Amino acid sequence: MIIRQLTRRTLRSPLECGSQLAALKALTGAARPNSDMAEFREVFSKAKHIAIITGAGVSAESGLPTFRAASGHWRRWKTQDLATAQEFSRNPSRVWEFYHYWRELALKATPSEAHRAIAECEARLSKQGRSMVVITQNTDELHRRAGSKHVLEVHGNLFKTRCLSCGDVDDNHHSPICAALQGKGDPDPKCSDADIPVRDLPRCDEGGCDGLLRPDVIWFGETLDSHVLTKVEKELDACDLCLLVGTASVVFPAALFAPQVASRGVPVAEFNIRPRASTSRYKYHFQGPCASTLPIALARHQSEVI
Ligand SMILES: NC(=O)c1ccc[n+]([C@@H]2O[C@H](COP(=O)([O-])OP(=O)(O)OC[C@H]3O[C@@H](n4cnc5c(N)ncnc54)[C@H](O)[C@@H]3O)[C@@H](O)[C@H]2O)c1
Ligand SMILES: [Zn+2]
Protein backbone atom coordinates (compact mmCIF):
# COMPACT_ATOMS: atom_id res chain seq x y z
CA MET A 1 0.00 0.00 0.00
CA ILE A 2 1.48 3.33 -1.07
CA ILE A 3 0.62 5.44 1.96
CA ARG A 4 2.48 3.36 4.58
CA GLN A 5 5.57 4.58 6.40
CA LEU A 6 5.54 8.05 4.89
CA THR A 7 6.45 11.15 6.81
CA ARG A 8 4.39 14.32 6.80
CA ARG A 9 5.85 16.81 4.36
CA THR A 10 4.81 19.53 1.95
CA LEU A 11 5.67 19.68 -1.72
CA ARG A 12 8.08 22.58 -1.99
CA SER A 13 9.34 23.09 -5.54
CA PRO A 14 7.50 23.30 -8.87
CA LEU A 15 9.76 20.49 -10.03
CA GLU A 16 8.63 18.29 -7.19
CA CYS A 17 5.00 19.26 -7.86
CA GLY A 18 5.47 18.27 -11.49
CA SER A 19 6.85 14.86 -10.67
CA GLN A 20 4.17 14.23 -8.05
CA LEU A 21 1.44 15.23 -10.50
CA ALA A 22 2.89 12.78 -12.99
CA ALA A 23 2.68 10.13 -10.27
CA LEU A 24 -0.96 11.08 -9.56
CA LYS A 25 -1.73 10.90 -13.26
CA ALA A 26 -0.20 7.45 -13.48
CA LEU A 27 -2.26 6.37 -10.48
CA THR A 28 -5.59 7.72 -11.57
CA GLY A 29 -5.57 8.05 -15.33
CA ALA A 30 -6.76 11.19 -17.06
CA ALA A 31 -10.47 11.35 -16.32
CA ARG A 32 -12.44 14.50 -17.10
CA PRO A 33 -14.27 15.80 -14.01
CA ASN A 34 -17.87 16.84 -14.27
CA SER A 35 -19.98 18.97 -11.98
CA ASP A 36 -23.34 17.33 -12.55
CA MET A 37 -24.80 17.31 -9.06
CA ALA A 38 -27.83 15.23 -10.08
CA GLU A 39 -25.54 12.51 -11.43
CA PHE A 40 -23.38 12.65 -8.29
CA ARG A 41 -26.50 12.33 -6.15
CA GLU A 42 -27.42 9.07 -7.91
CA VAL A 43 -23.95 7.67 -7.18
CA PHE A 44 -24.23 8.91 -3.58
CA SER A 45 -27.62 7.23 -3.14
CA LYS A 46 -26.12 3.82 -3.97
CA ALA A 47 -22.88 4.14 -1.97
CA LYS A 48 -22.55 1.91 1.10
CA HIS A 49 -19.16 3.06 2.44
CA ILE A 50 -18.33 6.71 1.97
CA ALA A 51 -14.92 8.16 2.83
CA ILE A 52 -14.66 11.93 3.22
CA ILE A 53 -11.14 13.33 3.16
CA THR A 54 -11.05 16.87 4.56
CA GLY A 55 -8.51 19.67 4.81
CA ALA A 56 -8.32 23.20 6.15
CA GLY A 57 -10.95 24.48 3.64
CA VAL A 58 -13.72 22.67 5.53
CA SER A 59 -12.96 24.84 8.57
CA ALA A 60 -12.48 28.08 6.62
CA GLU A 61 -16.10 29.08 7.07
CA SER A 62 -15.74 28.46 10.81
CA GLY A 63 -13.23 31.32 10.80
CA LEU A 64 -10.07 29.19 10.90
CA PRO A 65 -7.80 30.47 8.12
CA THR A 66 -6.26 27.90 5.80
CA PHE A 67 -2.47 28.00 5.72
CA ARG A 68 -2.59 29.35 2.19
CA ALA A 69 -5.10 32.08 3.09
CA ALA A 70 -2.78 33.17 5.90
CA SER A 71 -0.03 33.19 3.21
CA GLY A 72 1.48 30.27 5.05
CA HIS A 73 2.87 32.49 7.80
CA TRP A 74 2.44 33.16 11.52
CA ARG A 75 4.26 36.38 12.41
CA ARG A 76 7.35 36.34 10.23
CA TRP A 77 7.72 32.57 10.11
CA LYS A 78 6.47 30.00 7.66
CA THR A 79 4.02 27.68 9.39
CA GLN A 80 5.72 24.63 7.93
CA ASP A 81 8.99 25.74 9.57
CA LEU A 82 7.30 26.26 12.95
CA ALA A 83 5.53 22.89 12.88
CA THR A 84 8.70 20.84 13.29
CA ALA A 85 10.42 19.02 16.16
CA GLN A 86 13.63 20.93 15.36
CA GLU A 87 11.97 24.31 15.86
CA PHE A 88 10.30 23.08 19.07
CA SER A 89 13.65 22.04 20.56
CA ARG A 90 15.24 25.33 19.37
CA ASN A 91 12.46 27.62 20.50
CA PRO A 92 9.66 25.88 22.48
CA SER A 93 8.21 29.22 23.60
CA ARG A 94 7.66 30.43 20.02
CA VAL A 95 6.16 27.11 18.91
CA TRP A 96 3.86 27.00 21.95
CA GLU A 97 2.74 30.58 21.21
CA PHE A 98 1.88 29.48 17.66
CA TYR A 99 -0.15 26.47 18.90
CA HIS A 100 -1.77 28.51 21.66
CA TYR A 101 -3.00 30.91 18.95
CA TRP A 102 -4.54 27.99 16.99
CA ARG A 103 -6.05 26.37 20.07
CA GLU A 104 -7.75 29.56 21.18
CA LEU A 105 -9.06 30.21 17.64
CA ALA A 106 -10.40 26.66 17.33
CA LEU A 107 -11.99 26.74 20.81
CA LYS A 108 -13.94 29.87 19.90
CA ALA A 109 -14.97 28.55 16.46
CA THR A 110 -18.22 26.75 15.79
CA PRO A 111 -18.68 23.96 13.23
CA SER A 112 -19.74 25.20 9.79
CA GLU A 113 -22.63 24.02 7.62
CA ALA A 114 -20.11 21.71 5.94
CA HIS A 115 -19.12 20.01 9.23
CA ARG A 116 -22.78 19.73 10.15
CA ALA A 117 -23.84 18.28 6.78
CA ILE A 118 -21.20 15.57 7.13
CA ALA A 119 -22.19 14.69 10.69
CA GLU A 120 -25.91 14.68 9.91
CA CYS A 121 -25.31 12.44 6.89
CA GLU A 122 -23.25 9.95 8.93
CA ALA A 123 -26.02 9.67 11.54
CA ARG A 124 -28.67 9.17 8.84
CA LEU A 125 -26.71 6.59 6.84
CA SER A 126 -25.82 4.53 9.91
CA LYS A 127 -29.55 3.85 10.42
CA GLN A 128 -29.62 2.49 6.87
CA GLY A 129 -26.68 0.11 7.42
CA ARG A 130 -24.38 2.40 5.43
CA SER A 131 -21.17 3.91 6.75
CA MET A 132 -19.29 7.16 6.53
CA VAL A 133 -15.80 7.94 7.76
CA VAL A 134 -14.10 11.33 7.97
CA ILE A 135 -10.37 11.22 7.31
CA THR A 136 -9.19 14.67 8.26
CA GLN A 137 -5.91 16.55 8.08
CA ASN A 138 -7.40 19.11 10.44
CA THR A 139 -6.43 19.20 14.08
CA ASP A 140 -9.25 21.50 15.24
CA GLU A 141 -11.79 18.86 16.41
CA LEU A 142 -14.63 20.65 14.58
CA HIS A 143 -15.83 17.42 12.93
CA ARG A 144 -16.29 15.79 16.35
CA ARG A 145 -17.90 18.91 17.75
CA ALA A 146 -20.36 18.86 14.83
CA GLY A 147 -21.31 15.31 15.84
CA SER A 148 -19.25 13.12 13.49
CA LYS A 149 -18.51 9.84 15.28
CA HIS A 150 -16.18 8.05 12.90
CA VAL A 151 -13.24 10.46 12.52
CA LEU A 152 -9.62 9.61 11.76
CA GLU A 153 -7.30 12.53 12.53
CA VAL A 154 -4.21 11.84 10.47
CA HIS A 155 -2.28 14.90 11.68
CA GLY A 156 -3.22 14.58 15.35
CA ASN A 157 -5.23 16.90 17.54
CA LEU A 158 -4.59 20.40 18.90
CA PHE A 159 -6.40 19.44 22.10
CA LYS A 160 -4.13 16.57 23.04
CA THR A 161 -0.69 16.94 24.59
CA ARG A 162 2.23 14.53 24.73
CA CYS A 163 4.84 14.57 27.50
CA LEU A 164 8.43 14.59 26.24
CA SER A 165 9.58 12.83 29.45
CA CYS A 166 7.05 10.08 30.19
CA GLY A 167 5.21 9.95 26.83
CA ASP A 168 1.78 10.38 28.43
CA VAL A 169 -0.86 11.58 25.95
CA ASP A 170 -3.74 13.51 27.46
CA ASP A 171 -6.81 15.46 26.38
CA ASN A 172 -6.37 19.12 27.18
CA HIS A 173 -8.96 21.82 26.49
CA HIS A 174 -7.67 24.36 29.02
CA SER A 175 -7.85 27.99 27.92
CA PRO A 176 -5.15 29.17 28.17
CA ILE A 177 -3.21 25.92 28.37
CA CYS A 178 -0.91 27.55 30.97
CA ALA A 179 -0.84 30.91 32.72
CA ALA A 180 2.27 32.14 30.90
CA LEU A 181 0.52 31.87 27.51
CA GLN A 182 -2.43 34.01 28.57
CA GLY A 183 -2.81 36.81 25.96
CA LYS A 184 0.13 35.51 23.88
CA GLY A 185 0.26 34.15 20.33
CA ASP A 186 -0.70 37.29 18.38
CA PRO A 187 0.03 36.41 14.70
CA ASP A 188 0.84 40.04 13.73
CA PRO A 189 4.28 40.12 12.02
CA LYS A 190 5.20 43.15 14.15
CA CYS A 191 4.55 41.29 17.40
CA SER A 192 7.61 40.20 19.40
CA ASP A 193 8.17 36.73 20.82
CA ALA A 194 7.07 36.24 24.44
CA ASP A 195 10.26 34.27 25.23
CA ILE A 196 8.56 32.29 27.98
CA PRO A 197 11.00 30.28 30.15
CA VAL A 198 10.68 26.54 29.49
CA ARG A 199 9.68 25.88 33.12
CA ASP A 200 6.57 28.07 32.59
CA LEU A 201 5.43 26.35 29.37
CA PRO A 202 2.81 23.54 29.59
CA ARG A 203 4.13 20.79 31.91
CA CYS A 204 3.04 17.20 32.60
CA ASP A 205 0.98 16.66 35.77
CA GLU A 206 1.15 12.85 35.56
CA GLY A 207 2.43 11.48 38.89
CA GLY A 208 4.74 14.44 39.54
CA CYS A 209 6.52 13.98 36.18
CA ASP A 210 6.60 17.72 35.33
CA GLY A 211 8.11 17.02 31.86
CA LEU A 212 7.66 19.52 29.03
CA LEU A 213 4.48 18.94 27.01
CA ARG A 214 4.20 19.29 23.24
CA PRO A 215 1.05 19.43 21.13
CA ASP A 216 0.11 15.88 20.06
CA VAL A 217 0.10 16.76 16.37
CA ILE A 218 2.19 15.30 13.56
CA TRP A 219 4.89 17.77 12.68
CA PHE A 220 6.51 18.04 9.26
CA GLY A 221 9.20 15.38 9.00
CA GLU A 222 7.43 13.08 11.48
CA THR A 223 5.87 9.75 10.63
CA LEU A 224 2.11 9.47 10.81
CA ASP A 225 0.69 7.25 13.57
CA SER A 226 0.79 3.72 12.16
CA HIS A 227 -2.43 2.68 13.96
CA VAL A 228 -4.30 5.60 12.39
CA LEU A 229 -2.74 4.88 8.98
CA THR A 230 -3.77 1.23 9.15
CA LYS A 231 -7.36 2.31 9.79
CA VAL A 232 -7.15 4.85 6.95
CA GLU A 233 -5.91 2.16 4.55
CA LYS A 234 -8.78 -0.13 5.52
CA GLU A 235 -11.31 2.63 4.90
CA LEU A 236 -9.74 3.67 1.58
CA ASP A 237 -9.78 0.03 0.44
CA ALA A 238 -13.42 -0.45 1.46
CA CYS A 239 -15.03 2.79 0.29
CA ASP A 240 -17.22 2.89 -2.80
CA LEU A 241 -17.40 6.69 -2.92
CA CYS A 242 -14.85 9.27 -1.83
CA LEU A 243 -15.27 13.00 -1.24
CA LEU A 244 -12.21 15.25 -1.16
CA VAL A 245 -13.14 18.46 0.61
CA GLY A 246 -11.21 21.71 1.08
CA THR A 247 -7.69 20.45 0.72
CA ALA A 248 -4.90 21.68 -1.50
CA SER A 249 -3.50 18.13 -1.42
CA VAL A 250 0.08 19.26 -1.05
CA VAL A 251 0.80 17.61 2.28
CA PHE A 252 2.00 14.04 1.98
CA PRO A 253 1.07 11.30 2.53
CA ALA A 254 -2.55 12.58 2.80
CA ALA A 255 -2.30 13.93 -0.77
CA LEU A 256 -2.12 10.33 -2.00
CA PHE A 257 -5.32 9.11 -0.32
CA ALA A 258 -7.82 10.26 -3.00
CA PRO A 259 -5.61 9.25 -5.97
CA GLN A 260 -5.29 5.81 -4.38
CA VAL A 261 -9.08 5.46 -4.24
CA ALA A 262 -9.50 6.77 -7.80
CA SER A 263 -6.94 4.24 -9.05
CA ARG A 264 -9.39 1.46 -8.00
CA GLY A 265 -12.02 2.99 -10.28
CA VAL A 266 -14.02 4.34 -7.32
CA PRO A 267 -15.62 7.74 -7.97
CA VAL A 268 -13.95 10.66 -6.22
CA ALA A 269 -15.78 13.99 -5.92
CA GLU A 270 -13.76 17.07 -5.14
CA PHE A 271 -15.26 20.08 -3.34
CA ASN A 272 -13.06 23.16 -3.42
CA ILE A 273 -13.39 26.89 -4.01
CA ARG A 274 -11.02 26.56 -6.96
CA PRO A 275 -9.90 23.90 -9.41
CA ARG A 276 -6.49 22.48 -8.69
CA ALA A 277 -3.86 20.93 -10.92
CA SER A 278 -4.98 17.41 -9.99
CA THR A 279 -8.73 18.16 -10.33
CA SER A 280 -8.86 16.53 -13.75
CA ARG A 281 -7.90 13.22 -12.14
CA TYR A 282 -11.23 12.95 -10.34
CA LYS A 283 -14.68 12.07 -11.60
CA TYR A 284 -16.52 15.04 -10.10
CA HIS A 285 -15.52 18.56 -9.17
CA PHE A 286 -17.87 20.97 -7.39
CA GLN A 287 -16.54 24.47 -7.21
CA GLY A 288 -17.59 26.80 -4.41
CA PRO A 289 -17.51 27.12 -0.63
CA CYS A 290 -18.10 23.64 0.78
CA ALA A 291 -20.53 25.06 3.37
CA SER A 292 -22.80 25.69 0.35
CA THR A 293 -22.03 22.70 -1.86
CA LEU A 294 -21.81 19.87 0.72
CA PRO A 295 -25.27 20.32 2.29
CA ILE A 296 -26.75 19.87 -1.20
CA ALA A 297 -24.51 16.93 -2.07
CA LEU A 298 -25.17 15.05 1.18
CA ALA A 299 -28.84 15.89 1.69
CA ARG A 300 -31.35 13.06 2.08
CA HIS A 301 -31.91 11.38 -1.29
CA GLN A 302 -35.45 10.50 -2.34
CA SER A 303 -34.51 6.80 -2.23
CA GLU A 304 -33.66 7.00 1.50
CA VAL A 305 -36.63 5.74 3.43
CA ILE A 306 -35.25 5.87 7.00
N1 LIG B 1 -8.38 23.89 10.75
C1 LIG B 1 -7.24 23.18 10.84
O1 LIG B 1 -7.13 22.22 11.60
C2 LIG B 1 -6.09 23.59 9.95
C3 LIG B 1 -6.01 24.88 9.44
C4 LIG B 1 -4.90 25.23 8.63
C5 LIG B 1 -3.97 24.25 8.32
N2 LIG B 1 -4.10 23.00 8.82
C6 LIG B 1 -3.08 21.98 8.46
O2 LIG B 1 -2.35 22.49 7.37
C7 LIG B 1 -2.09 21.56 6.37
C8 LIG B 1 -2.53 22.21 5.07
O3 LIG B 1 -3.24 21.37 4.24
P1 LIG B 1 -4.71 21.57 3.67
O4 LIG B 1 -4.65 21.07 2.26
O5 LIG B 1 -5.68 20.98 4.59
O6 LIG B 1 -4.99 23.12 3.67
P2 LIG B 1 -4.47 24.26 2.74
O7 LIG B 1 -4.50 25.48 3.55
O8 LIG B 1 -3.22 23.85 2.09
O9 LIG B 1 -5.57 24.33 1.58
C9 LIG B 1 -6.89 24.60 1.84
C10 LIG B 1 -7.71 24.21 0.61
O10 LIG B 1 -9.05 24.50 0.90
C11 LIG B 1 -9.61 25.22 -0.19
N3 LIG B 1 -10.65 26.04 0.40
C12 LIG B 1 -10.52 27.19 1.11
N4 LIG B 1 -11.71 27.62 1.54
C13 LIG B 1 -12.61 26.71 1.11
C14 LIG B 1 -14.03 26.60 1.24
N5 LIG B 1 -14.75 27.50 1.92
N6 LIG B 1 -14.63 25.53 0.67
C15 LIG B 1 -13.93 24.60 -0.03
N7 LIG B 1 -12.59 24.66 -0.18
C16 LIG B 1 -11.95 25.70 0.38
C17 LIG B 1 -8.47 25.98 -0.83
O11 LIG B 1 -8.73 26.26 -2.19
C18 LIG B 1 -7.33 24.98 -0.67
O12 LIG B 1 -7.27 24.09 -1.75
C19 LIG B 1 -2.82 20.31 6.76
O13 LIG B 1 -1.86 19.39 7.07
C20 LIG B 1 -3.63 20.67 8.02
O14 LIG B 1 -3.32 19.75 9.04
C21 LIG B 1 -5.15 22.64 9.62
ZN1 LIG C 1 5.17 13.21 31.89
UniProtKB/TrEMBL annotation:
<dbReference type="GO" id="GO:0017136">
    <property type="term" value="F:histone deacetylase activity, NAD-dependent"/>
</dbReference>
<dbReference type="GO" id="GO:0008270">
    <property type="term" value="F:zinc ion binding"/>
</dbReference>
<feature type="active site" description="Proton acceptor">
    <location>
        <position position="155"/>
    </location>
</feature>
<feature type="binding site">
    <location>
        <position position="204"/>
    </location>
    <ligand>
        <name>Zn(2+)</name>
    </ligand>
</feature>
<dbReference type="InterPro" id="IPR027546">
    <property type="entry name" value="Sirtuin_class_III"/>
</dbReference>
<comment type="function">
    <text>NAD-dependent protein deacylase. Catalyzes the NAD-dependent hydrolysis of acyl groups from lysine residues. Has weak NAD-dependent protein deacetylase activity; however this activity may not be physiologically relevant in vivo.</text>
</comment>
<dbReference type="InterPro" id="IPR026590">
    <property type="entry name" value="Ssirtuin_cat_dom"/>
</dbReference>
<feature type="binding site">
    <location>
        <position position="166"/>
    </location>
    <ligand>
        <name>Zn(2+)</name>
    </ligand>
</feature>
<dbReference type="GO" id="GO:0005739">
    <property type="term" value="C:mitochondrion"/>
</dbReference>
<comment type="similarity">
    <text>Belongs to the sirtuin family. Class III subfamily.</text>
</comment>
<dbReference type="InterPro" id="IPR026591">
    <property type="entry name" value="Sirtuin_cat_small_dom_sf"/>
</dbReference>
<keyword id="KW-0808">Transferase</keyword>
<feature type="binding site">
    <location>
        <position position="209"/>
    </location>
    <ligand>
        <name>Zn(2+)</name>
    </ligand>
</feature>
<feature type="binding site">
    <location>
        <begin position="272"/>
        <end position="274"/>
    </location>
    <ligand>
        <name>NAD(+)</name>
    </ligand>
</feature>
<keyword id="KW-0520">NAD</keyword>
<keyword id="KW-0963">Cytoplasm</keyword>
<feature type="binding site">
    <location>
        <position position="290"/>
    </location>
    <ligand>
        <name>NAD(+)</name>
    </ligand>
</feature>
<dbReference type="Pfam" id="PF02146">
    <property type="entry name" value="SIR2"/>
</dbReference>
<feature type="binding site">
    <location>
        <position position="163"/>
    </location>
    <ligand>
        <name>Zn(2+)</name>
    </ligand>
</feature>
<keyword id="KW-0862">Zinc</keyword>
<dbReference type="GO" id="GO:0070403">
    <property type="term" value="F:NAD+ binding"/>
</dbReference>
<dbReference type="InterPro" id="IPR050134">
    <property type="entry name" value="NAD-dep_sirtuin_deacylases"/>
</dbReference>
<dbReference type="InterPro" id="IPR029035">
    <property type="entry name" value="DHS-like_NAD/FAD-binding_dom"/>
</dbReference>
<dbReference type="GO" id="GO:0036055">
    <property type="term" value="F:protein-succinyllysine desuccinylase activity"/>
</dbReference>
<feature type="domain" description="Deacetylase sirtuin-type">
    <location>
        <begin position="30"/>
        <end position="304"/>
    </location>
</feature>
<dbReference type="GO" id="GO:0005634">
    <property type="term" value="C:nucleus"/>
</dbReference>
<keyword id="KW-0496">Mitochondrion</keyword>
<keyword id="KW-0539">Nucleus</keyword>
<feature type="binding site">
    <location>
        <begin position="55"/>
        <end position="74"/>
    </location>
    <ligand>
        <name>NAD(+)</name>
    </ligand>
</feature>
<dbReference type="GO" id="GO:0005829">
    <property type="term" value="C:cytosol"/>
</dbReference>
<dbReference type="GO" id="GO:0036054">
    <property type="term" value="F:protein-malonyllysine demalonylase activity"/>
</dbReference>
<keyword id="KW-0809">Transit peptide</keyword>
<dbReference type="InterPro" id="IPR003000">
    <property type="entry name" value="Sirtuin"/>
</dbReference>
<keyword id="KW-0479">Metal-binding</keyword>
<protein>
    <recommendedName>
        <fullName>NAD-dependent protein deacylase sirtuin-5, mitochondrial</fullName>
        <ecNumber>2.3.1.-</ecNumber>
    </recommendedName>
</protein>
